Please model this.
Amino acid sequence: MEHDLQLRAAARAIFDACYPTEDWSPVGFDEAERLRTVHYRQAVGAAQHACAALAAPGLQLALPTFA
Model:
């Protein structure tokens, strides 16, 4: 994913947020990317969905409210 730096950055942010320690993922983002682990693939899929939602023209995303 070296060619799409923005998508890679989003995938890294999601990966780091979802898998913050070795309890969640046995390797860090760079190694997971190299090995194409399930954790990496899930983060990339989430990043693709997020980018598509954020790029939709005229779409106003509602922010969640926390009580």
User: Anything to note?
Assistant: The chain has a mean pLDDT of 88. Residues 11 and 45 are 8 Å apart (CA to CA). The first helix runs from residue 5 to 18. The helical segments are 5-18, 29-35, 38-55.
